[in-house]
Every structure is written in C-alpha cells, then in structure tokens.
Amino acid sequence: xxxxxxxxxxxxxxxxxxxxxxxxxxxxxxxxxxxxxxxxxxxxxxxxxxxxxxxxxxxxxxxxxxxxxxxxxxxxxxxxxxxxxxxxxxxxxxxxxxxxxxxxxxxxxxxxxxxxxxxxxxxxxxxxxxxxxxxxxxxxxxxxxxxxxxxxxxxxxxxxxxxxxxxxxxxxxxxxxxxxxxxxxxxxxxxxxxxxxxxxxxx
Length: 203
Known about the structure:
The chain is an all-alpha fold and 203 residues long.
C-alpha cells in the first residue's frame, strides 16, 4: 500500500493518483541493488512497509507535484530538496562508515544476534537509495536546464529519497527500542543506566 502524502489515505501499490487527486510516489522495489550489502542467507531482513511521518519528505513530494501537475514554481521544491540533499550527502560522506564500524563491533559481540544485521542492512540500503535518488533528481534538474521535462525521472528520484528516509528512520526506531530494552533490563537488575550516564558526563 502507498500512503498519500496529502491526505494519508492508503492506496493500492502501483496506483498513480490518490482518491483526493494527489500524485502518489511510485516506489521502486527495495530488494534491488544490494550487491554491496553483507547479506546473510539465514536472515529474513526487514524492510519499511509504510512511510514514516516526515514533514520534510511531504513538503518535497508535494512541491514536486505542484510543479509537475499544477504548473507551480520550481523554487519551493528546490528549497526543500537542497536541504535534504545536503544532509544525506553529509551522512554518506562523513558518518556512514563510522556507523558500519560501530555495527561491525556490535556483531562481533554476539554473531547470532540478528539486531545488528538488520540495522546494517537498513542503513546500507538507505545510503544506496539516497545516492540513487539524488542522481535521478539531479538528472531531472539538468534536463530542465536544457528545456526538457523528464517528470518521471524526478518522481522516481524523490520516491527513492523517501524510501531512503524510511530505511534510516526504521533503523533509528530499532536502535531506540533496543536502547529502551537494555535500560529496562538493567533497571530490573538494580542498575540505572541513565543515572550512571548523567554522573559520568558531570565528572
């Protein structure tokens, strides 16, 4: 199912327009382009099944819709897209490898633990999708500079960026849930991790 960015209505996969008339993102299959991901044949990898609420992703998709379908200005789309692009490129350049090294260390502690495998898959796939999406949107913008409208390229690029965001946020949600579970287990054994962390930071 594809959630409408405008009204939130769930629409069947493959449908191009919501019942409210808004253009729907056409999502590419998230199982492709995984050659650089260290996949484990015995692990059933999870993937986002719905969009995480994101005002920024909504604004970007809706601004593109306005430009392509409603004869709106390009500037609102560019304004949101440039901010998204900068953040994604900063992550891919400066933080991605650090994240993978942290996960590799986590995996070495307990090779049977599926949690770090799942998070690794999500952030690597998210990074791939973000790069693919940016490439497509830049191609769309280059075509506009040459007075050619390649709307489908722009829509596919935005859809991939939205997918990337969903992968990253699912990884973050899993990490936060894991941290909460660890804190709860420690507290059950008489250890207050939050208090210990606060004390160590104050020293």
